[in-house]
Design a protein that fits this description.
mainly alpha, 8 helices, 0% strand
């Protein structure tokens, strides 16, 4: 096979892995929130948090060797900022993540038309948006630090990465979920909003994770 064709095949495999991994993550995570909503709490907050952590863990095992298992534009940008990932690959990864996330939200919208929220992210009633933005930035900061410390280059692979990253997502969803839904991922917030039409606080779920991931990268650089 010519080198160019081989490179294109590898690129497509990575695109596919990021798309399917992000699809699975949002379908299962937002799906748990959606089913919890329409069944009046049958899954419970703890169950929702566990679902997020476990699906991320599973997808890292499945696709970590192929694409690095980013599944999050903030993480992809963080790896690029840390000079562990090529900037020219960033748009392709984000496109793949967006495709997977939007398809997942579309499937939930089709399956559960009675849902009002589809797992969307909004601050808790009475919790000011600026505080929600600070909390989301901190959550993503912790996530990015963990990812950088357990990853190999720009890849989250192996038992340590899967358990550590899945564990920190479960932990953060457990304690911060009631206040902000613990997004830490712009696509995870954008995808359901496209189907619910609720864009009021979407800006903070885009800006805060990117800022938090960037600060995580800087922290790791200073900590060397």
């Amino acid at each position: 096979m010519p080198p160019q064709s081989l490179t294109q095949k590898q690129t497509m495999k990575k695109f596919y892995a990021e798309m399917i991994g992000t699809f699975a993550m949002i379908f299962c995570g937002c799906g748990a929130m959606t089913i919890n909503e329409i069944t009046n709490g049958s899954i419970t907050h703890v169950g929702v948090a566990a679902t997020w952590g476990l699906i991320v863990m599973a997808m890292i095992y499945a696709f970590g060797e192929t694409s690095g298992a980013h599944f999050n534009p903030a993480v992809t940008l963080g790896f690029a900022l840390a000079k562990k990932f090529s900037w020219n690959k960033v748009p392709k990864y984000i496109l793949a993540q967006a495709t997977g996330g939007i398809l997942a939200a579309c499937m939930l919208w089709f399956l559960f038309p009675e849902s009002q929220f589809l797992g969307e992210t909004t601050p808790a009633v009475g919790f000011p948006p600026y505080k929600a933005a600070i909390l989301e930035a901190l959550l993503t900061f912790f996530l990015m630090v963990v990812i950088l410390k357990v990853s190999s280059g720009s890849k989250e692979i192996g038992t340590m990465a899967a358990i550590a990253v899945g564990g920190v997502i479960l932990l953060e969803a457990m304690f911060a979920g009631p206040m902000t839904k613990a997004s830490m991922n712009p696509i995870r917030s954008i995808a359901p909003a496209l189907f619910t039409g609720n864009f009021e606080h979407l800006w903070l779920y885009i800006v805060a994770p990117i800022l938090g991931a960037s600060l995580g990268v800087l922290s790791c650089k200073f900590g060397k």
